[in-house]
Structures are given as structure tokens and as C-alpha cells.
Amino acid sequence: MELQNERLAVTLSDPGSEYSRSRFDWSGIVTGIVLDGAHNFCSQEAVEGNPGTEGLGLSCEFGINRPVGYDEVGVGEWFPKIGIGFLLRDSDEPYDFFKDYEIDSAMIETLQSDEYGLLFRQEVAPRNGYAWILERAISIKDNRLYVRNSLKNIGNKKIITNEYWVPLIIKFSTRNLRKIPLE
Fold it and tell me: Residue 67: which H helix or E strand, with range?
């Protein structure tokens, strides 16, 4: 999927296609940002020397350290992971965002509003008292990328979470760089 205007081209992955692991929200992962046809700002997470989670570009995660409901479910039970669906708790160990958990994904709809914006929507049916509607609108104007999120609790249990945005896994091109003298 791509959004494009005169200055900016933004590529997004279809939910669950390029990234389908248990850490990052699958809706609205920005895999490429090209400014003025020359400057590409996105890359995949380097995993050499660290466990990594194959993050790419601009993506987000809900509950990086304490996912909703993890502490209240037992081994063999499902806990919510907003933007993905539900994950299976398979041990008594504390939550580890580097770990791959078994996933029961919830559908994410991709709605095109126009060539300058997309809307992703995930409505999750109640499970263990948790249910939500997540909407993420991504749009471009001139040389700017806008992301707007809405999370509505439609279950009977409270959702207390934080949202963490991967600070844009970027790559720098050496093209057109010049040495700047240090004083």
C-alpha cells in the first residue's frame, strides 16, 4: 500500500503480511518513507548481536512491559495484545517482549479514504472480559506524515496500557553527504 503526493511517498505493509510476530501492532506499519524522491528513511531492525524482534520502519506496540491482562491469566490462557489479538501465556515467567508467543489474531480492516490517507480498524470480540476497537489513521500532506490513533474499550474489564512507538528504524544514505569541518 502506498500514499503519495508531490514530496512524499509512504509505503505501508498489509496487516500481518511483512510483520506477523507477537510484539508490534500489525496495523499501519510504515515500511518506507521517501522524501523528494531521494531520501529513504526506513529500514529493518538490525539483529546482529541482539535478539531483535524484526521491527521495521515506523511501528508501535501497546503494553511493552505490562501487556493488558498478562498478570491475571494463568499458563495456557490467552491475554490481549492490542493491535494483534490475543497471545497465549505459556509459562509462569514475566512477560518478555522479545519472546514469540502463540497468536490468535483478530482481523484488521484496511480502509482507503483517499490517495493521501488510510484507515486501519480492528474490532475485537469479547474474550476474558476484554474487547476493543482500535483505529489508526495515517495520512500525508506536503512533506509531513500524520498518525492518529483511537482506542475504545468495549469490554467489561478496564484497559490500562501505554503505547510505545518504535523511534523510526531509519537508514542513512551516504549519497550527497559532505564532510563538515569540526572546530
Answer: none
